[in-house]
Design goal:
about 10% strand; binds cobalamin; single chain; about 290 residues; 7 strands; Rossmann fold; Methyltransferase, Methionine Synthase (B12-binding Domains), Chain A, domain 1; alpha/beta; 2 domains
């Protein structure tokens, strides 16, 4: 809780960790484009509100889709949602989090179901589940959420994703194997990717997170999946790139490594596909190039 002389909100470093938009980029988006203008403390340090962090998340999704920051920075949050095709969404992620805070699971489930009915599975993940996890990170950082809430939320996300994963599809055909490497526990992104793959007719094998590379390769050699999906959220980008570059050449012919999560948005390794969103991944699965 901020004292009367302080300004409430998150410092810029925290916002960078949560959103995956670097500190320098956040400053330049503000200075050059007035994209998000957080309040300042007496000492001049930036303090971002939850709404401002949400806005940074929307701007990042647009920039990942190929919009220039100058063309979107001046628009209000509703317009940004419209550009992303998130119309009718309002603050659904925030409403689910309020329900989780009150441990009102029926309400949280009902809201998630409403969102799931409005969008394709990949769009639901990009527009509802991922922003909701981002907002949860803000509430955790400012003390409104405790570990208990984060675990309840992760469980709700898993259930939503499982509910949307078709049970009849993917009984034959190509496999997707999904997991994370040791040191990276955040596996919800690749779980969402497995749901998207299943809706595109792939068979999915989700392994427990943090699987050592040699064990992972044993699975890949045996199953021969078309796609090996890995998530990188907290691993430093340089380390992620090094480990991906070491792993990729060891995959059997016919298996493609697809990586996602904010830790690898700028990764460039020959033969490795970077999915910047689940809509991006869905386009790749159906053979359409990214925008
Ligand atoms: C849920 C969560 C957890 C859960 C994870 C549950 C699980 N099974 O995954 C639990 C409780 C276990 C957890 C643990 C920890 N967490 Co945590 N967690 C989060 C939270 C709320 C969401 C993370 C998440 O799932 N993101 C995944 C998706 C939704 O986001 P995305 O990366 O943008 O990915 C998108 C696309 O790129 C794509 N995608 C992602 N992966 C893939 C893969 C493929 C193949 C494809 C195609 C696409 C794709 O899908 C997404 C949707 O569009 C974040 C808050 C936040 N803002 O992210 C903190 C957060 C990531 N956690 C954090 C921390 C610090 C931790 C812990 C270290 C805490 C602790 N002290 O123990 C531990 C351990 C982490 C470790 N060793 O790796 C910090 C990280 C700070 C940093 N340094 O960067 C965050 C940012 C919260 C904060 N404090 O600010 N966490």
């Amino acid at each position: 809780m901020a004292s009367p002389n302080e300004v409430a909100g998150l410092p810029v470093g925290r916002v960078a960790e949560l959103t995956g938009v670097g500190i320098e980029t956040l400053r330049s988006w503000e200075r050059r484009h007035g994209a998000v203008t957080p309040k300042r403390t007496k000492g001049g340090a930036r303090r971002y509100t939850e709404q401002e962090v949400t806005r940074v998340g929307l701007l990042k999704r647009l920039v990942d889709q190929g919009w220039s920051i100058s063309s979107v920075a001046g628009r209000d949050t509703t317009e940004l949602q419209e550009l992303l095709g998130d119309r009718l969404l309002g603050d659904l992620p925030g409403a689910v989090l309020d329900a989780v805070l009150a441990f009102d699971l029926d309400e949280a489930e009902a809201l998630l179901l409403r969102g799931a009915r409005q969008f394709s599975p990949e769009h639901f993940s990009d527009a509802v589940l991922a922003p909701m996890l981002l907002q949860a990170g803000v509430r955790w950082a400012d003390g409104r959420f405790r570990v208990a809430h984060e675990h309840v939320l992760s469980s709700l996300v898993r259930r939503s994703v499982q509910r949307l994963t078709p049970v009849t599809a993917g009984r034959s055909g190509e496999w997707l194997v999904g997991t994370t490497l040791p040191g990276e526990r955040h596996a919800l992104g690749v779980l969402m990717a497995s749901m998207v793959a299943a809706t595109h007719g792939r068979r999915v094998l989700m392994l427990e997170p943090e699987l050592p590379e040699d064990e992972l390769l044993a699975v890949v050699e045996g199953v021969r999946p078309r796609v090996l999906g890995l998530s990188f959220v907290t691993m430093r980008p340089a380390e992620a790139e090094e480990r991906v570059a070491a792993l990729a050449p060891r995959l059997p012919k016919g298996s493609t490594l697809v990586v996602g999560g904010r830790g690898v948005h700028d990764l460039a390794v020959d033969g490795v596909v970077v999915a910047r969103s689940l809509q991006d991944f869905a386009r790749w699965l159906s053979g359409r190039p990214s925008r």
